[in-house]
Amino acid sequence: KIKACIFDLDGVIVDTAVYHYKAWKRLANELGFDFTEEDNEKLKGVSRVASLNLILQWGDLSKTDAEKEELATRKNNWYVEMINKMTPDEVLPGAKEFVESCENAGIKTALGSASKNSRTILEKVGIAHLFDVVIDGNKVSKPKPDPEVFLKGAEELGIAPENCVVFEDAIAGVEAAINGGMKVVGIGSPDVLGKANLVINGLNEMSLEKLNKL
Ligand code: BG6
Ligand code: MG
Questions:
Q1: SS3 per-residue string spanning the chain
Q2: Average model confidence (pLDDT) for the chain?
Q3: Which of 19, 73, 107, 111 has the highest count of CB atoms within 10 angstroms of its CB?
Q4: How confident is the model at residue 207 (pLDDT cuts 50, 70, 90)?
Q5: ipTM field
Q6: Of all protein residues, whose CA lies closest to atom 14 belonging to ligand 1?
Q7: Ligand 1: distance of its center to the CA of 212 in Å?
Q8: Catalytic activity annotated for this protein (predicted)?
Q9: pLDDT(37) > 90
Q10: 114 CA → ligand 1 middle, Å
């Protein structure tokens, strides 16, 4: 029986993936190269440092740790500038409604995100109050597909992993949920997220009925 839902943030609750993409692209361009939207898929769900390492690899550049820190900070400053301007209408269709319907049905809710900026985003779009527990990049050390972020969420909610469902748009996130012994609903394309128990286009297609059939 499902007792808790754990939601990824970027790409599930809000479409911040476009802001991450813009900021990383700007950084790559300043370093003298570019990367495609297809490559960008590989950055979803991946931590800030790991994303930077991938991008440097694509540009065939090697940097010292100090230089990497400066580059990651530069990217994050542009990203923060963009998320600071976010408004409540940037919550993805059906996301707020589905989280609310969980709460009304007595199902616990948590956020499970790799982002260190999740607090800012939740507050800017006005949904911080909707989650019983928030686990984000400031609280975890092992990146998805390690299940740490979701297991911590389940633990703080006091619900066993097998009674949790994770909602994820990234391959690494779907794998993290499976590695944690949880059910998982993929948000996006079945071609990419085929390992999930169910794949939908967005939370606007989700319902308590579908949840109970997982
Ligand atoms: C994930 C995003 O949620 O958070 C990744 O999908 C991002 O693209 C990661 O790199 C870390 O985010 P932040 O905000 O801490 O740089
Ligand atoms: Mg995501």
A1: CCCEEEECCECCCECCHHHHHHHHHHHHHHCCCCCCHHHHHHHCCCCHHHHHHHHHHHCCCCCCHHHHHHHHHHHHHHHHHHHCCCCHHHECCCHHHHHHHHHHCCCEEEEECCCCCHHHHHHHCCCHHHCCEEECCCCCCCCCCCCHHHHHHHHHHCCCHHHEEEEECCHHHHHHHHHCCCEEEEECCHHHHCCCCEEECCHHHCCHHHHHCC
A2: 96
A3: 111
A4: very high
A5: 0.97
A6: 115
A7: 30
A8: beta-D-glucose 1-phosphate = beta-D-glucose 6-phosphate
A9: no
A10: 5
